[in-house]
């Protein structure tokens, strides 16, 4: 199956799963599980929720992770501070990268907005360099749109 076919099915699956619930914890947990089980070559998929000047670990799939990340620090903190998706081919070349899992080599982080402010981020890591591309970014941004459309943030 092509990447676009995988994402087409994944987005339909997320629409179905997330449309039945509005609780943010439940929807983060189910979305992390869907992404982790349906996308290849991932070692972590989950959420961080903004609390003041930090991101706090939310539901995820993968190894234990960093619990608190300051805004502007690492890939997640940068996405939260700038409000822009961070697509990182090699995390070891990213200034200030926080190594929660030494196996991670590439990462994509998509900000989640509520009322024009960053509410949190979706964070996905891979043990493969340059695992993520523009197609992943576009599709995962669509996944976040589905999440925000069905979740009471």
Question: Keyphrases for this structure?
Answer:
single chain; about 150 residues; Beta-Lactamase; 6-stranded antiparallel β-sheet; 4 helices; 6 strands
Description:
This protein has helices at 3-18, 24-38, 74-82, 134-150, and strands at 44-51, 54-62, 68-70, 86-88, 106-114, 117-126. It has a single domain (3-150), classed as GAF domain (Beta-Lactamase), CATH 3.30.450. A six-stranded antiparallel sheet has the order 3-2-1-6-5-4, with helices on both faces. The model has no long low-confidence stretch (mean pLDDT 96). The protein is of the alpha+beta class and 153 residues long. α1 packs antiparallel against α2. It starts with a helix and ends with a helix. A hairpin with a 2-residue loop joins β5 and β6 (117-126). It is built from four helices and six strands, in the order ααβββαβββα.
């Amino acid at each position: 199956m092509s990447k676009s076919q995988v994402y087409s099915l994944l987005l339909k699956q997320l629409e179905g799963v997330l449309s039945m619930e509005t609780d943010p914890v439940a929807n983060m947990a189910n979305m992390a599980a869907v992404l982790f089980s349906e996308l290849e070559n991932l070692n972590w998929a989950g959420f961080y929720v903004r609390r003041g000047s930090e991101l706090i670990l939310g539901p995820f799939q993968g190894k234990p992770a960093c619990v608190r990340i300051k805004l502007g620090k690492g890939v997640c903190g940068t996405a939260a501070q700038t409000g822009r998706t961070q697509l990182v081919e090699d995390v070891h070349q990213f200034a200030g990268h926080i190594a929660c899992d030494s196996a991670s080599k590439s990462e994509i982080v998509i900000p989640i907005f509520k009322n024009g402010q960053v509410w949190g981020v979706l964070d996905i890591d891979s043990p493969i360099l340059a695992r993520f591309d523009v197609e992943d970014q576009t599709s995962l941004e669509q996944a976040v749109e589905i999440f925000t459309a069905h979740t009471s943030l």
